[in-house]
Amino acid sequence: MNMVDLRLKIENIVGVQLIENSIPWSHWQELTSSMDRWIGTPVRNNNMILLPWSYSEEYVNVWGIKPGSLSEPESKLIELLLQTAANQIRPVKSERGDEESAVLELGAWLQQQIKNETPQEEIPDTLTLKSRLSTRSVPFLLDCENRSKPNIQYQKLNKLLKSYFGGDLLLVPIQDQEWLILVGEGQLEDLRLERQESREAERTMLYDLCQGVHELIANEWVGNFHISVAPPMVPEQSLTGTARVLRETLLIGKMFNVSQHIHLPWELYLERLIYSIPDKQRKQFMERMGIGMSIFNDSETLATLETFFQLDCNVSETAKRLYIHRNTLLYRMDKIKHETGLDVRSFKDAVLVKLTLLLYKVTKRK
User: Fold this and answer.
1) H/E element, 247
2) Per-residue confidence at 89, pLDDT binned at 50, 70, 90?
């Protein structure tokens, strides 16, 4: 059944006219704040409720209805019918090319799954790109914080990345200025041969790739770019879960490591745990610790602590990294001990200061 017939049948059943309309993508994103509202999900716009039922490269096709015209069961039924019918609908092709249409389709589906409470993990057969998602790939997530800057065009970014990685690559826009990059694992074999076969060696390789991509893009466009990466996986089986982890990694990384642009899931285990603690419990812990949070407002103290923890509490290496004399560093540590009652040269006290610092960061950002 085509959508015209479906609309007419719904109108006959509920006795209410559904007004057809096409909304430009830019306006649709203003209405929804992102691309997370999708097939069948109602969106209120002034004196109309909009029901999206398909999309093209430039427009979202909707049915409009006045509020209060339908009962709640009728609204739910129409939403279900639209979501079911969407499995038969393909994005309209345009002059932008088949691949760009297909990645937009995949990105819209992925964004919806990320937002769902019970997301669908396996790629549905209706998506055009499913056949290209059955081989192992390395997933990167790229995000640009400067939303006010001119948008990076898909064609230019895709061309740039393919010049770096080669042809076996998919660039998937998820939402405005957020990009999922899938690189075929086979392209990394040469790099693997240069390194030892170990988890640590693979993580080093992935970090180096992130650094290369970040520098490549930062040299081409103005903006504050952040990137994350996950180990190789099969997109057809675990794309949704991986994208969720990468998005959360960027969120947590930007919150706790404000000066960094590369955020790796395996380096943020403690930060992820702190972030998951409810705000009330975080504040209670900080109050019971009795540490004056003002010490973290001092840039010198903050840099000293972060460098000290980053270098595994090694006093000599920390002094070298900060370009200060060892005695100067010890003086700073004595000052921290005087103000907090905790000596960061002691493992137990260092753990408490580290936890308090992370709690301070997440509380301050929120």
Assistant:
1) helix 235-256
2) very low
The closest of 173, 294, 321, 295 to 243, measured between CA atoms, is: 173
Percent of the chain whose predicted confidence (pLDDT) is above 70:
84
pLDDT (0 to 100) of residue 161: 92
Predicted confidence (pLDDT) at residue 27 exceeds the cutoff of 80: no
pLDDT value at position 152?
77
Question: Can you give the pLDDT at residue 112?
Answer: 84
So what CATH class is 98-269? alpha beta
Residues in the chain: 366
Q: If we measure between CA atoms, which residue out of 312, 301, 315 comes closest to residue 357?
A: 301
> Of 1.20.1250.20, 1.10.10.10, 1.10.10.2840, 3.90.226.10, which CATH number belongs to 277-365?
1.10.10.2840
Structure tokens at 53: 């039922």
Taking residue 357's Cβ as centre, other Cβ atoms within 10 Å add up to 19
- DSSP strand E in the chain: where? 19-24, 43-45, 48-55, 59-65, 137-144, 169-175, 178-184, 225-229, 262-263
91: CB partners within 8 A, 6+ apart: 54, 55, 56, 57, 101, 102, 104, 105
Tabulate helix, strand, coil % of the chain (nearest 5).
55, 15, 30
Q: Which amino acid is at 49?
A: I
Q: Which helix (H) or strand (E) holds 289?
A: helix 279-289
Q: How far apart are CA 34 and CA 152, in angstroms?
A: 17
The confidence score (pLDDT) of residue 151 equals 66
Q: Are strands 137-144 and 225-229 parallel, antiparallel or unpaired?
A: antiparallel
User: Distance between CA 361 and CA 366 in Å, rounded?
Assistant: 9
Cα atoms in the Cβ-side hemisphere of radius 13 Å centred on 357: 27
pLDDT of residue 258: 76
Tell me if 124 sits within 8 A of 86, measured CB to CB: no
Note whether 98-269 and 277-365 share their fold: no
* Residue bearing the bigger pLDDT, 1 or 93: 1
Domain boundaries, the chain: 3-86, 98-269, 277-365
Band (pLDDT 50/70/90 cuts) for residue 35 is very low
